[in-house]
Every structure is written in C-alpha cells, then in structure tokens.
C-alpha cells in the first residue's frame, strides 16, 4: 500500500524554506490572541495590550521551550552547538515554553499596572487553544508519537482518516497518534474553561489553575505512551509511584518504550504531578487567606491609576488631574458653589 506522507516544508524558494511546523505554531498563537482579545474587551483591555503581550510572550516561550529541551538532551547537542538553534526541525518542550512565557508575562503585566492573576485567567483559554493547534506541527514532523500499534487499530478501531494513518507510519511502523490524543484532550479542556469562566463562584487565578490541572492530568497519561520522552534516573520508589499512577492505562494501552539507560522517570509525568498538586494547593491557600477575594467576573482595576481597565482616556485624565479636565473643574467650581448656595437659600426660605 502506498503511503502519502506530508512534506514538512510548505514553501521552498532556493535554499529558503518555510516549514509547516512554524506555520502551525503561528496559527495557534494567532487563534489564542483573537480569543484573548475578544474576552479582554469585556473588561476594557485593548487589543494592543494583548498584541504586545503576544510579541513579548511568544519569543520568550520559544526560547524557554528550546532551553528546556536542550538542557535534558545536552549530550546530543554539545558537540554541534549550531544545531541548538535549528528549532524548525522540532525539539521544544511545552513546560519550558510555559516557564518562558510566564516570566515575560509577569513582568509585562505588572509593568502595565494590572494583576497577573486577572490577565492570566483571560489568557488561559488562549494557551490551551495554542496547544490544540500546535500539536499538529508534531504530526507534520512525525515526532512526539507513541509506541507501535497496528494499522488496523488506527483505521478500524479509532476510525482515523487515511491521511492521519499514513503519517503515523514512521519508517515502516505505525505509532500511536499521541499528538491527536493531546489535541482532543485540550479541546475538551477549552470547552471546560469557557464554561467555568462564566461561573460566579470562580475566583481570580482559578481559571489558570484549572488549565494547569486539566492539561497536566491529560499530559501525564498521554506522556506514558510516548517513546521520545525526556527522562532522568530517579529513585526506584518514585519510579514505582509514577508507574502505579499510570497503571490503569494498561487495561487498553501498552506504555511507550523508555530506555532504562536513559532514565526511569519521564520528566513531563513528574512535572505534571507537581503542577496538579501545586495548582490545587494554590486554590486552597488563596481562598483560605483571602488572597482570592476578587472574582473572575469582577472589573479589572489598574493598580497604577486605581481605575477599572474599561475607564476611557478622558475619565483617566480627569482622575489623574489632567490639564484639560483640571482646568474645567477649576473653572466650574465657583459656579457649582453658587448653584449650591442658591439651593440652600431656597431651602432655608
């Protein structure tokens, strides 16, 4: 049977190449931006605010993702340092991307005078949207797949279309489309986040934490199917604990192969566990201490001006003692006093 594989290069002009991987990641970022802009308008945050956040966050995410990946694959890169920069060939880690994006986001959002929790909540659905789309870049590159499976499993059990099945044939062996599993899991997560953010009980920061919990649970179980996981050598009790949490999956799936010489604990699985625990703890502690007094549906206040984000420029200028409104108030003050006095006289009469 002839297999129709997707060319990872979308456009080639001489030696210049544009790869589908980059295009797909760009589309994911654009979709996330549009989603954040639409929700941000409800709170008076401008599209420019989110555009600037994207322009700062995306490069930071890419750098963080690459550093994270290369750090755990250093033996493969230390003799060819130029290959560290060949990100178009794949090799980034989502947790590294989140670290990079969040560092840049915290600095930018605070510099603008807003609460990080409030803006991060708005961006949570955007993050998972980017991941829904971005995983298809792995599909085109034939990477981040799971262990071997039969063609029959893909075609007749999962009922996948032929163009996906064909692409899952890597060097003559069919593999689990873990990119698809994660993309669909994240799609369900997006629906959940969109429902949650309209609930009155939701406090500031809790939509972001819900994203971390949902994504991490799915990533933990899907990661166990993969054959290219970043790993390290850890204590046997920890490896047994992680494997025990994953064991319900063995009813249907075989775990992806992990070379014992490389490691016995998948890093993404361990990080996923820690993120779930941390997210739950943050929700509990913030509620218990009163730090989560703001609700998601409350107006967003700029801490520099003390005004809601949806305050217009004229209102902001007046509140800050701007020249135009300051003059108007000064000139109007005598008339206001005279009017007030007249009313008082009439009342006394």
From TrEMBL:
State the membrane topology.
Multi-pass membrane protein
Signal sequence bounds = none
Annotated region (Disordered) at: 304-349
Keywords in alphabetical order, please.
Cell membrane, Membrane, Transferase, Transmembrane, Transmembrane helix
The record lists the membrane-crossing segments as 20-37, 49-72, 92-109, 203-222, 267-285
Q: Which Pfam families match?
A: LGT
For bias type Basic and acidic residues, the affected ranges are 314-349
Q: Pathway it belongs to?
A: Protein modification; lipoprotein biosynthesis (diacylglyceryl transfer)
Subcellular location(s): the record lists: Cell membrane
**Could you tell me which PROSITE patterns the record lists for this protein?**
LGT (PS01311)
So what EC number does this one have? 2.5.1.145
Q: Which family does it belong to?
A: Belongs to the Lgt family.
Which HAMAP family does the entry mention? Lgt (MF_01147)
Q: What is this protein called?
A: Phosphatidylglycerol--prolipoprotein diacylglyceryl transferase
Biological classification of the source: Bacteria, Bacillati, Bacillota, Bacilli, Bacillales
